[in-house]
Amino acid sequence: MFARSLNKIFNQNPQKLTVYQLGNPALREVAKPIDDVHDREIQQLIDQMLVTLKDSNGVGLAAPQVGRSLQLVIVASHPNQRYPHAPQMEPTAMINPKIISRSGETEKGWEGCLSVPMIRGLVSRDRQIEVEYTDRHGDLKVTRLTDFVARIFQHEYDHLEGKVFLDRVENTLDLATEEEYQKLWQ
Ligand code: ZN
Known about the structure:
Structural class: alpha+beta
Largest sheet: 5 strands, antiparallel
Bound molecules: zinc ion
CATH architecture: Alpha-Beta Complex
Number of strands: 8
CATH superfamily: Peptide deformylase
CATH topology: Peptide Deformylase
Shape: globular
Number of helices: 4
Order of helices and strands: HHEEEEEEEHEH
Strand content: 25-35%
Number of domains: 1
Radius of gyration: 16 Å
């Protein structure tokens, strides 16, 4: 009972976390699986990552980006300044995620990353994937993701393997600054 009420107090005002930037070795580590989803620190980390994401106009965030080498990603597609054409969805915490199957049909699309500020790159991703993860309540979920949401997932999943989107850009001609990228949409 005490632990529960303490948990409530703890999570009332989640703090925004610092997003580690490219060059920080933490972004290159392979993340470890989470044993106990109900652990108070894990639940707090999820809340803090949700706040961090909202504050940064991001559509996805992986725990290694905030310096925690754990298999946890948030996928939170919604239209905003950085991604005006993103579909709307409820922000979803995915714990120990796995890609079960891939459509094999790939598409190139522009990506950015809160850990790689001011740079966009064209990256090839599977258009459709089937993924398995544990949600923040401890339930195992299997779901099919398509297009932009599938792209976000694959980008975040890469972070768990110590990769960033720049590793997947095939040609330096496929890079743009944020400013030039925004002009494409005006
Ligand atoms: Zn990223």
